[in-house]
Specification:
six-stranded mixed sheet; about 250 residues; alpha/beta; binds fe (ii) ion; Purple Acid Phosphatase, chain A, domain 2; globular
Length: about 250
């Protein structure tokens, strides 16, 4: 198995003491990262809203923390991020802003952000990049910030991926697709897209800081603590995965 830790929606500030809805995002991220590192994954995938305001200081501090783990980290932007600042202050040795290959698997990172908007959209060139990447096979993990599936939380679902149908059309046409990882919703959600040729597991992972209560019509903060998703990728395309909460969650140790 190739072991992967999925972390998302860190919302780090330039000032590490600053809080988001009462939570010190730096402190919760540090604890999630320490927990994940103790499990010795082969790679980290971070799917956006890495910072709250796109701040250079926050990216530089995140880069240093990721590099200190010695584990390769693959990062993509969310609506709160600045792709330009990520290029300048986050990219570095062991911290990548593009995908990679892991044996019989490949990781495809997509930028679903639209400048000035909370919701997401994949441009025609990004969809074309996805199509070409998936054609390389044999198995693929696709990661993006905005959920390409409705999570059942009305106010959030209107802020997801506006052209999700185009995304799924590409995935349906490419049997290499096995797994889609997303953030943005600050809650756990899993579903499967089943076609005659292949099945795609679609996972939305909770935040490393504040969680939002599922199945609500307006934003409500959930009592679940910081979280990450742990995934195993097998040589034959098989997948195992689970969400782990550090505290206040259903599977609190
Ligand atoms: Fe987001």
């Amino acid at each position: 198995m190739f072991w992967l830790a999925h972390l998302t929606d860190l919302h780090l500030f330039d000032d590490p003491a600053q809080r988001l809805r009462g939570v010190c995002t730096e402190e919760t991220f540090d604890r999630v990262l320490a927990t994940v590192v103790s499990r010795q994954p082969d790679a980290l995938v971070l799917t956006g809203d890495l910072t709250q305001d796109g701040g250079a200081i926050a990216y530089a501090r995140l880069r240093a923390k990721l590099q200190a783990t010695g584990i390769p980290a693959y990062c993509l932007p969310g609506n709160h991020d600045s792709p330009e600042a990520m290029e300048q202050h986050l990219r570095g040795e062991g911290v990548f802003l593009q995908g990679t290959g892991w044996g019989s698997w490949q990781l495809v990172l997509l930028d679903s952000t639209v400048p000035g908007q909370v919701g997401g959209c994949l441009s025609p060139s990004t969809l074309d990049f996805l199509r070409r990447s998936l054609a390389e096979g044999p198995w693929a993990v696709v990661a993006l910030h905005h959920p390409a599936c409705a999570v059942g939380t009305d106010w959030m679902d209107v802020l997801g991926l506006v052209n999700a149908a185009d995304f799924w059309q590409v995935c349906q046409g490419q049997a290499a697709t096995r797994l889609v990882l997303q953030g943005h919703a600050h809650q756990a959600f899993e579903t499967e897209h089943i076609w005659p040729t292949h099945t795609v597991t679609c996972c939305v992972t909770p935040s490393t800081c504040v969680q939002f209560r599922p199945c609500t019509s307006t934003l409500e903060v959930d009592s679940h603590g910081p979280a990450y998703r742990w995934l195993g990728l097998g040589n034959n395309g098989e997948i195992c995965h689970e969400v782990r909460y550090l505290e206040g969650g259903k599977n609190t140790p």
